[in-house]
Structures are given as C-alpha cells and as structure tokens.
Amino acid sequence: MVEERRILYEHLDVPDINTFDVFRQYDGYTRFEKAIAEYQPEEIAKMVLDSGLKGRGGAGFSTGEKWSFVPRDIEPRYLCCNADESEPGTFSNRYVLEKNPHLLIEGILICCYAMGIETTYVYIRGEFTLGKKMLDAAIKEAYEKGYLGKDVRGTGLNIDIYTHPGAGAYICGEETGLIESLEGKRGQPRNKPPFPAVEGVFRKPTVVQNVETLCNLPFIVGNGVEWYTQMGPTYADTRFDPPKPDANTGTKLYCISGDVNEPGVYELDLGLTCTELIEVAGGLRGEEVKAVIPGGSSAPILTHYELDTRLDFTSLTLAKSMLGSGGIIVMNETRNIVDCLLNIMKFYAHESCGQCTPCRWGTPWVRDIVQRIADGDGRKETITRPKFGVAENGRWGDTGETEEIYEDLDLLESVANNIANVDTMTWNTICVFGIAVSWPAVSYMRKFRPEFEAAIREGKLVTLPVAEATVPPEENYAYQQRFIPKEFADL
Amino acid sequence: MSDELVQIETPFAFNEENQREFDELIGRYPIKEAAMLPTLHIAQKQAGYITPAVMKYVAEQLEVTVMKVKDVVTFYPMFFEEPVGEYVIRVCHTLPCALRDCKVVLDHLKAKLDTDIASETNLAKGTTADGKFTLMKVECLASCDVAPVIMINDDLYKNLTPEKVDELLAKLAS
Ligand SMILES: Cc1cc2nc3c(=O)[nH]c(=O)nc-3n(C[C@H](O)[C@H](O)[C@H](O)COP(=O)(O)O)c2cc1C
Ligand code: SF4
Ligand code: FES
C-alpha cells in the first residue's frame, strides 16, 4: 500500500503549531532565513523553476515559469494568495489556514523575497471566518517578531501581508475575478491577455498563487531542489526531440470525499492511481466503484474502466480530464449519474458571473435539460425513416429498422459545446468557467449514456448496475482519446 | 407610514469600534474603493443587513457612487438586502454533501423550524415567524470530508444527523 508522505501537513496536528513559538521549534522561518542569507532573489526563482513545482489551485501551470513572466522593472508588484477554495470537493487550504497559518506566511515571505514584492493580499473566502481569524493572529505575531513590516529582520526588505475577505462567490477563485473582487468590484473575470503577471491588481504586475503552492516553497528552499524532484514521476514529453522532461514533482494534498470509508486530506506523492488512493482513504464504502471525479467538480469524470489512471497533472490531462484542485469525489454503485450531474449543474448555474452570453444563458439551459431528464420528461423520438445498413438479404439497403433519437442528449451536448467545446478545447467565454461547465456535462453524458437513455426511456431515474451504466471502452470515443504517458526514466 | 420607510430614512454611521477597524483597513489599499468588501462586511455586522442608508454611507466613505456599492452588494451572496434571523443557518447541498445525505438534514431543519428555504431574492421566505432563524442552501463549504455540514452564523458544524440538529437547535433556543 502507498504510504502517506507528510511534508506540508507534517506538523499540522502539533498542539499550538499556530503560535509563533511552537512553529519556531519545528524549523519555522528558518527556511526563509536561509533564503535571505544564502541566495539572491533570482536564485530562488531559478530553484522554484527547476523544482518543477506546478500550481495547485487548478490550472497546474508551472510556478517558476509564471514568475518569469513578471516584469521586474515595474513597481510596485503584488502577490495575491488565492485562499478562495470553493471548488466542490476541495478542502485542503482550510486546514492550513486554521491550523498552521505560519507556514503560509513563510511561503509568502519567500515568494516576496524572490519576486521583490512588498505587498501581499490573501483573499480568503468569506465563509472561512475561523481561518481568517487564525491567519490574522499569526500575521500579528509575525509583525511583532519582526518577520513582517518595515526592514524585516534587519535585511532592508519591507513586506506587508493583509487578509481580504470574499463574500461567497465561487468565481472569485478565478485569478482575474479575484483581482476584480480585490479592487472592490463585482468578481467578474477579465479578458486575457494581459495576464495578471503583467497587469493584475491595481493594473500592476501580480503573482496569483494558491495557498498550497506557496506552502511548498519553504520545503524547496530548505531541502533543496534535488530532494524535491525525487518525489513524484517525471514524464517524457515526446512531442519534443529529444523528449522534454515533464515534471510532476512533489506531494499533493489530495482531498478525498464521497463514498470512501475515511474521507479526508491525504498528502501523497503525485502519481498514484485512483485505486491506490481509494485504498489509502480506508477503501470504498459500498460494493463497486461506479465513477470518480478526479479534480473538483469541474473535471471530466472517470469510470470504473479508468481506475488505473495516475492522479497527476500530466496523466490526467492525457486521459482528457484534469487534476485541477485535487478534490477527488468517489461514487459507488448506488449512485445515479444523472442525479449527480444535476447537482453539479445547479452549482454552475448558480455561480456563473453573468458576463458572457453563452455562459449566462447556456449554463441554466444545460441545468434545465438535465432537470427535465431527471424528472422523467426527457425528450425522445422514435424515427421510422429508413436506416441504411446490411439488410437481411446480405446486401446494402434499407434495413427497415426504426431508430431511437434521444433529442435531449443531443441538445445537452450541443448547448454545452457551444459554451465551450470539449473536443477542440475552444471556449466562447471570457474565462474557463465555460469549460468547467461543459466538461462535466459532456463527459458524464458520453461515458454514462446508458443511464441517461434509461432515464428518458423509463420516464424516471433508473440506476443501472455499474457494468451496464457505462459504455465499454472499445465502443466509446470518449475513452479512445485516452493516452498513458511514459516516465522519463523508462526511455 | 410603514416601518420599512422609516427604516430607510434612519441614517447609518459606524460605531466607534467599527470606525477604528475601518480606519485601519483603508490604509491597506492604494485606492479606497478596494476596501469595499471588508467595509460592507463590517457594516453588515453592525446593521444586520445592507439598507439603502448603509450603501449611501459606505459610498461616501469610499468616495464612490451609491450605484457602485449596490452593484457589488447584489453580486455577492453573503450580503443581505433584507432583514435576516438572529441565526443564519447555511446548509451545504453540493455533490459531496449530497452523497452523504444532506437532504435529510435540510428536510429535518425545514420541518423543525417550520419554514421554507430562503432564496437570494426572498430571504423572508426562509425566516421563521419569530425572526430567530433564517434557513438557506449554500454551495460547497470546503469541508466535504466531514459532510454533511452546516454553518450557523460563523460556526461550522460537521457530520450532521437529525439528532445532532435537534441538539444544536435546543442549545440555540435556550
Ligand atoms: C472557475 C474557476 C475557479 C477557480 N477557483 C479557484 C480556487 O478556489 N482556488 C484556487 O486556488 N484557484 C482557483 N482557480 C484557479 C486560479 O484561476 C489560478 O489558476 C490559481 O489561483 C493560480 O494559482 P496556482 O498557480 O498556485 O495554482 C479557479 C479557476 C477557475 C477558472
Ligand atoms: S465564462 Fe461565465 S463565469 Fe466566466 S466570465 Fe463568462 S459569464 Fe463569467
Ligand atoms: S460539498 Fe458540502 S462541504 Fe463540500
């Protein structure tokens, strides 16, 4: 069985780790001190790039690369820490804020030093009242101890951290939505480019980084790049010649919920399979796995045929899904996928910010179609037009069959694909919320089509046995796009 | 004249403690407008909900138009434009909680409090007759490992069952 490797969460349960003194006993702030004593800011940025650290907030973009886009000659620059954590199924940032806030502060300090940033805003979702209280208290302590404020520890650096509460809107987790919200406006995402790295909050270069990403920094600096890159697989990107290494290094705070015996946050090396993760989380609650959502509700679903998929950025992208925020939701044989999709679509219809027409109208439309199917009023047509094929006489001709057309399923796919097309990966919207809507809608429907058809045919929700609910891989286009990456070392 | 009209005309101003908090806040941002969300949170804490007078006051403090404040208030679900109960009960109903039977908890609360569920445009619908509780559904509260969860004002309650809900309500009622 795969072992947990606690790094970010190692001291999470130490009593009073939220206070400066106890945190200090567990190497607290020594990594920041090491950074300022031993390295130049550019060297830290280089280390982060070499470590292969990828953003843990959703997009999985290389952190070092993102930093390299920030123009160092425009002042001031800002850091926004994304603690808006509202992707359904994700709950790892909450524990960091509530239990070990000094770790986040140390990560922020290292980032500020590397990027020459003086002001950081931590955007905390409005519902995290306890998390905000704990972080505020920790920030106060850090000011008192001279780790924040003017002339930090006599180094001449000025670093300020402020917390900023959100007010319950999911879309403020999107980086440009967050920036708009921080500026005191509606949290409506901006058109990109310009990207926040160039023009972000208050129209200045801004680094937006998730809590978990920032918490990785002390360990990269403290233990070195070599130590960090040992963890997790590095794949070979064979589109390049010679193949380019594609790092999935470090640990991930996997949040697992739904039908497992011990839901919770498990810190593991990137790259374990779904089956292994379910085992770590105390095994399945129920008889059989029906489906797994691998990266928060926005991610395309995986079926029981795909449980060997490794849960890392590259493998999931190649399996036409995504690791996203690392929120894994498991469903057992008693679950109805139509019902699950309905729940998720209600979420998205509620959370669309309303800026773009395809998203504002399309998302509630998708929800209404799924609602109609779930209510048993799904539209179906039996068509008796000639269907061409090999007829009884062995010759090509009219086979005389009638064909069932599930109009609502075609409509569902068409509406979803007009918000954002999942096959071409193009979206007709300002932000990628559009993809987050059509990805689940289309993937659930394609992979669990028999269950959707049954609901329309029977006029009520029918939960089919696992084997019958999904289309076998060889008959389904959705799986044929799946591709399993090779590890760099195996080449 | 109805009570409501009188209330609209009652001017609003921060009390001393909140004024101090606000003064500290405003220094954090290069532009005053950026303090909008924290300011509205403070104002809502003091006034109970965002009245037109609150919006006017906040607009003056941040040197923006009232329309701009209204624009923001209507966007975020955590700001109320109508009175709410003393205890706001937020029941999470997103997928992971749904997989752990949040519906049972929600139905139980509905029956116990004898009220409907508030909608964003009609909070009165979910508020009990005595004005003590407001029941509403919210999206994922980032605690899916301890689902089903609810929040009562600022506190989170985990792994709920109808029995636990009864205990909680009994404590709040006393
Ligand atoms: C609709 C939507 C919601 C998002 N929600 C969050 C969120 O709650 N928390 C988060 O850290 N990132 C979220 N993101 C990702 C951010 O846009 C951004 O990629 C991330 O904060 C960058 O930080 P990272 O590189 O450290 O991951 C969301 C993105 C989208 C499109
Ligand atoms: S895609 Fe949706 S959420 Fe994103 S900007 Fe457009 S309307 Fe807003
Ligand atoms: S779904 Fe309820 S806390 Fe996440």
Structure commentary:
The complex is a heterodimer of chains A (491) and B (174). Chain A has 491 residues and is α/β, with parallel strands linked by helices. Chain A has 3 domains: 20-231, Rossmann fold (3-Layer(aba) Sandwich), CATH 3.40.50; 252-332, Ubiquitin-like (UB roll), CATH 3.10.20; 337-489, de novo design (two linked rop proteins) (Up-down Bundle), CATH 1.20.1440. Helix content of chain A is 38%, strand content 15%. Chain A has helices at 20-25, 30-38, 41-51, 63-68, 92-99, 101-115, 129-144, 175-182, 211-223, 225-229, 274-280, 313-318, 337-351, 357-374, 407-419, 433-447, 449-458, 466-469, 477-480, and strands at 78-83, 119-124, 160-165, 206-210, 234-237, 244-247, 251-258, 264-269, 289-293, 302-303, 327-332, 381-383, 388-390, 396-398, 403-405, 420-421, 426-427. In chain A, strands 8-7-11-9-10 form a 5-stranded mixed beta sheet, with helices on one face. A 4-stranded parallel beta sheet of chain A has the order 3-2-1-4, sandwiched between helices. In chain A, helix 6 (101-115) packs across helix 9 and helix 16 (433-447) packs across helix 17. Chain A is elongated, with a radius of gyration of 24 Å. Chain B folds into 2 domains: 2-75, Arc Repressor Mutant, subunit A; 87-173, Glutaredoxin. Chain B is built from 8 helices and 4 strands; from the N terminus they run H-H-H-H-H-E-H-H-E-E-E-H. Chain B has a 4-stranded mixed beta sheet, covered by helices on one side. The longest helix of chain B has 12 residues, at 36-47. The model of chain B has no long low-confidence stretch (mean pLDDT 92). At the A-B interface, strand 3, strand 7, strand 11 and helix 13 of A face helix 3, helix 5 and helix 6 of B. The complex binds flavin mononucleotide (FMN), iron/sulfur cluster and FE2/S2 (inorganic) cluster. Iron/sulfur cluster is lined by residues 171, 188-189, 352-356, 359-360, 429-431, 433-434 of chain A.
